Amino acid sequence: MPLLDSILNLAVLLLWLNWRSLRLEPLANPIPTTLVGTLKSTSPGRFKSWPPLISLLLLLLLRVVLCREIGSPVDWTPKLDLVFVSLAFRSDTLHTAVLYSILSSLRLVVVFYFWVLVLVAINQRNTKPDAIEKLLRVHLGRVAHWPWWMLVLLPMAVAAGLWILVQPLLLHYSLALPAGSVAHLAAQGAVASLGLFLSLKYLLPGLLLAHLALSYVYLGTNPLWDFISATSGNLLKPLRRIPLRFGKVDLAPFAGVLTVMTLFHWIPNLVIGELARRNLTLWPH
Prior knowledge:
Layout: H1 2-24, H2 35-48, H3 50-71, E1 79-81, E2 86-88, H4 94-122, H5 131-140, H6 148-172, H7 182-198, H8 200-216, H9 223-235, E3 245-246, E4 249-250, H10 252-277
Antiparallel strand pairs: 1-2, 3-4
């Protein structure tokens, strides 16, 4: 059931991106040259974007049905893992199943856009962006031109704001404990948003290892390979001052992977484990 849940989350994300792409597609809004062209170009573009959005909503409803009809009989408890806190939802109740379906998909969408913002921030100084980078910037719109630190902090602010907004629903269905004060609630939102940074342990090592493979194996020309190489090169710039190349062997990608895993996986896990050993937690109460 967890695997099926993850697949449904991924399907929701793909449908969302498909809907966004149709709305951003330059050809969907061509510049008319005649009055007849103007009349013909309005309706198709508007109705073309509806099927992915309707499919997305139906998929969310399908997960609610599966959650109740399959999750409950197999004693599966849907959980929303926010790294520092995990919310458990009842699968046999309609309202909590709907809330889980929405929040679980929303979490993946927020993480995805955080990754996009981080990739854009890493390549922001590129004077000649490649095709993939241009596509990412189009999805972000004007936000892509913000300073890099704003690109990184924006998703954290969104995640913290979402936590505060859904707090009344979580309390209503007894899914979370009430915060002691407004300051505690804001602190909970800030801690929840830190999980976005820890998710980079999945993105950045993958990029660096792919870059390492492309350095020694020729796979032809592809915009994706160019984007991986350019992004990894920018990511490894702080390590270029360290002599990590020995002949034809470049150890910089390995050093980058170790650095990322240390910062976003091993140290956080060590801190969380030590706090648990002392019966403490980072989560504000």
